[in-house]
Write a structure and sequence with these properties.
This protein is an alpha/beta fold. The protein has a five-stranded parallel sheet with strand order 2-1-3-4-5, with helices on both faces. β1, α1 and β2 form a beta-alpha-beta unit. α4 crosses α7. The protein starts with a strand and ends in a 17-residue tail after the last strand.
Length: 169
């Protein structure tokens, strides 16, 4: 295992509870990334309810998080060298594009967005209704202008393809 840390961040989107581990976490660990996994609070509840938290913990020596730490608690992992945010919901994309950091997951992503040398890939999983919102194209353009690579997960066969966009561990 490398010392290079991949921040894997996920929001509550349909399919995430089954595809996140199989198509992102397991392949990233197999490539040699040290995984720092953070879920939005809602997705964290989904992962706990389906037993996925324990399966994800087996892939990393770092905590799997979805709650913020207390000020007296140490940081649970080093700053990641790259980030993959997938699946990313319309709500989470809007928050990231406008700088809202109301969860541990979005705090990490907001700190990474635009940071030189820190690749950030955002895999959106957004329905036609949400994508029809008048600000959706603006949110995507804002993320791209800040240096993020944005991929529509509905247009790819396997989420594993996102790992090709961050480089080697």
């Amino acid at each position: 295992m490398t010392d290079r840390v991949l921040g894997l961040v996920a929001a509550a989107c349909g399919g995430g509870e089954t595809r996140f581990r199989a198509e992102l976490a397991e392949p990233a660990a197999a490539l040699g990334w040290r995984l720092a996994i953070t879920a939005t609070p809602t997705f964290g509840r989904w992962l706990e309810a389906t037993g996925e938290v324990e399966r994800l913990r087996a892939l990393t020596d770092l905590p799997v998080r979805h709650d913020s730490r207390l000020p007296t608690e140490p940081k649970p992992y080093p700053r990641p060298d790259a980030f993959v945010f997938a699946p990313a919901s319309a709500n989470s994309v809007a928050k990231l594009a406008t700088g809202i950091a109301d969860s541990q997951a979005l705090t990490h992503l907001n700190q990474a967005l635009g940071s030189p040398g820190v690749p950030l890939v955002v895999g959106t999983l957004v329905s036609g209704e949400s994508a029809a919102h008048p600000l959706w194209p603006t949110h995507l353009a804002t993320l791209r202008a800040a240096g993020a690579t944005v991929v529509d997960l509905l247009a790819v066969d396997r989420w594993t393809s996102l790992l090709d966009l961050i480089g080697d561990p």
